[in-house]
Amino acid sequence: MNQQHTDPTPRTDLTPRDDLAPRDELTRLRADLARRAEASGDLDISYREVDGPLGRLLVAATPTGLLRVAFPGEGVDAVLTDLAARVSPRILAGGRRLDEPARELEEYLDGRRRSFDLPLDLSLLHGFRREVVASALPRIRYGQTASYAQVAALADRPRAVRAVGTACARNPLPLVLPCHRVVRSDGTPGAYRGGPEAKRQLLDLEAAAG
C-alpha cells in the first residue's frame, strides 16, 4: 500500500456532530484530550464521522494510515478515550488525511467499490489477532464468505476457531478488513461488532453488487 503522510488541517465543515454522546460530556473529553496532547507532543490522531446506511461511522487515522473505523453503537467518547490511552492523546477533529478513507467508505457502502486502497495503521493489532485480521481476512473476496474454521485454517491455526472469533469481534478496521464476511459453519451471519443487522446489510450489499 502507498503510505501518504499529511499534516492534519482542521476544517469547519468536518467538525463531528455529537449525537452519540451528550454534548457536555464530549466537550469535557475533548478539552481533556487537548490538554494531554499539548503536554505530550505525541503523534496525532485525526478523526471525523461518515454518514451512510449503517449510521454515522467514526473514522480515525494517524500519519501512518487509517487506524480505526467505529460503529455508532460504540460511542464517540468511548472510542476516542480508548485511542487516547492506547495510541496517542493528541486527537484532532478533521484533517485532510481522512478525505480518501471517507470517500472510499462512501463508495463501498454505495455499492461502487469492491476493495480498499488505503494505507493502514495496524498498531491496535498484535500477535495472532493481527495475523487473522490483517492477513487472513483480506483473502476473503468481495461477495464471498468463509466460516470461522476456514479462517483459522487460512491463518495456519486450524484449531483456533474461538480465537478467530475473538479477533473478528475486536477488529479495529471493520469494512476495510472484512470480518463481516466470516460466518458460522451453518451459513448464518453470527455476531458482529456493528451488530447482526449491520452484518446482514453488508452481506446483502455485496451479494447484490456481485
Provide the CATH topology of the largest domain: Double Stranded RNA Binding Domain
Number of domains: 2
Average of the residue pLDDT scores: 87
Number of helices: 7
What is the radius of gyration computed over CA atoms, rounded to a whole number of angstroms? 17 Å
Overview of this protein structure:
The protein is α/β, with parallel strands linked by helices. The protein folds into two domains: about 25-110, Methylated DNA-protein cysteine methyltransferase domain (Double Stranded RNA Binding Domain); about 125-210, Orthogonal Bundle (Arc Repressor Mutant, subunit A). Helices cover about 40% and strands about 15% of the residues. The chain has seven helices and six strands; from the N terminus they run H-E-E-E-H-E-H-H-E-H-H-E-H. The strands form two sheets. The protein has a four-stranded mixed beta sheet with strand order 3-2-1-4, sandwiched between helices. Strands 5-6 form a two-stranded parallel sheet. Strand 1 and strand 2 form a beta hairpin. The longest helix is centred in the N-terminal third of the chain and has 18 residues, at about 25-40. The chain is globular and about 50 Å long. The two termini are about 25 Å apart. Mean pLDDT is about 85; it is low at about 1-20.
